[in-house]
Amino acid sequence: MARKRFPPDDPREWLNRARSNLVLSRITNSDVYLEDNCFDAQQAAEKAIKAVFIHRGESFPYIHNLEDRLKRLERNGLKIQIYVHKPHELTRFASEPRYPGASGPVSKREHRHLVRIAEAVLRWAESQIEKP
Predict the structure, then answer these.
(1) Overall average pLDDT of the 81-105 stretch
(2) pLDDT of res. 132
(3) What is the CATH code for 11-130?
(4) Contact criterion met (CB below 8 Å) for 97 and 36
(5) Where are the domains of the chain?
């Protein structure tokens, strides 16, 4: 069943997009490079963090460094739990999978670890947006 779509300035649409990328990040079969799945995990975390910026009425920087984005939210008064600071491990997947040879293959273990990070970031973002 298709998700309800929202306008692009609605944080719920960004969360929808993050959820979509998270689903893609979990697809594993012999025809898919795990580093491509990690790109989708990175995108899920990035879009979830952007949803928080939008929810707070703040503009987000056009960068892929997730740690920098989280630090910006903290400077603007948002308390961020330590477990949410792990997206820096995903940052390299914003661009490396786009260029064959830019990085080596990803192990199944590393892939699972990075998907768990994206899941945690998405849960955190959802909790920020669902607060009254």
Answers:
(1) 86
(2) 55
(3) 1.20.120.330
(4) yes
(5) 11-130
DSSP H/E element including 114: helix 108-130
42-69 burial by CB neighbour count: b if 16+ within 10 A, else e? bbbbbbbbbbbbbbeeeebeeebebeeb
Using CA atoms, how far apart are residues 61 and 68, in angstroms rounded to an integer?
Answer: 9
Listed as own residue / partner, the contacts of 55-62 with beta carbons closer than 8 Å and 24 or more positions apart are: 55/11, 55/128, 55/129
Cβ–Cβ < 8 Å for 84, 124: yes
Q: Cβ(62)–Cβ(41) under 8 Å?
A: no
Structure tokens at 128: 């920020």
d(CA 21, CA 12): 14
Residues whose CB falls within 8 Å of the CB of residue 66, separated by 6 or more in sequence, listed in order: 42, 45, 46, 49, 87, 88, 90, 91, 121
